[in-house]
């Protein structure tokens, strides 16, 4: 009984078929050369630093060492590390960006098995940048890259006095 379905053999499997598909050697040489050039460029860029973005050092206008801890109500307490006083209380479910930045930096500390002993450094530079540094892990978040609302939230931490509520 003949089936209505006819199965073709794989290309190149028929004895009467022309030679299997072949890629021209010059194309293979060019592809290999391209791969070598890409890897050589990437490695030399890493080693010699060309094409890398580097922030140039700038004068520090304002700086504050801050420690963050969980509050009983689910918020975050912000302590001035030098005076050891609470300078702000971040209410629960507010300041999402600030919480996210802290979460990212504290996650890096947890991965490196570093505790909360060393405070974070919030710095306003003369060139306008506002940066939250973690001296323990050498990580940093450039706050000014994220817009005026986020800048304002962190800027207030530079100037708030004792026990100020930090509203969203």
- The strand line-up of the biggest sheet is 6-5-4-1-2-3-7
N- to C-terminal distance: 79 Å
Low-confidence segments, ≥5 residues, pLDDT <50?
163-168
Helix content: 25-40%
Mean pLDDT: 80
Major sheet description: 7 strands, mixed
- How would you sum up the global shape? elongated
Number of strands: 7
Strand content: 15-25%
Order of helices and strands: HEEEHEEEHE
Structural class: alpha+beta
Cα radius of gyration in angstroms? 29 Å
The number of helices is 3
Whole-number total of structural domains: 2
Describe the structure.
- The protein has 168 residues and is an alpha+beta fold.
- The chain has two domains: 22-54; 60-165, no CATH class.
- The protein has helices spanning 25-48, 96-111, 148-159, and strands at residues 60-70, 76-80, 85-90, 120-125, 130-134, 139-142, 164-165.
- It has a seven-stranded mixed β-sheet with strand order 6-5-4-1-2-3-7, covered by helices on one side.
- Strand 2 and strand 3 form a beta hairpin.
- The chain is elongated, with a radius of gyration of 29 Å.
- Residues 163-168 have low confidence and may be disordered.
């Amino acid at each position: 009984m003949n089936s209505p379905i006819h199965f073709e053999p794989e290309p190149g499997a028929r004895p009467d078929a022309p030679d299997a598909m072949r890629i021209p050697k010059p194309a293979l040489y060019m592809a290999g050369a391209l791969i070598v050039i890409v890897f050589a460029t990437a490695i030399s860029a890493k080693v010699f630093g060309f094409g890398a973005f580097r922030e140039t050092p700038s004068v520090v206008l304002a700086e504050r060492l801050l420690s963050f801890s969980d509050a009983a109500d689910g918020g975050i307490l912000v302590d001035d590390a030098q005076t050891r006083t609470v300078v702000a209380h971040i209410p629960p479910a507010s300041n999402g960006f600030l919480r996210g930045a802290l979460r990212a930096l504290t996650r890096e500390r947890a991965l490196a098995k570093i505790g909360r002993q060393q405070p974070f450094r919030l710095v306003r530079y003369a060139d306008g940048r506002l940066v939250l540094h973690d001296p323990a892990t050498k990580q940093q978040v450039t706050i000014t890259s994220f817009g005026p609302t986020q800048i304002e939230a962190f800027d207030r931490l530079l100037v708030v006095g004792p026990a100020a509520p930090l509203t969203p």
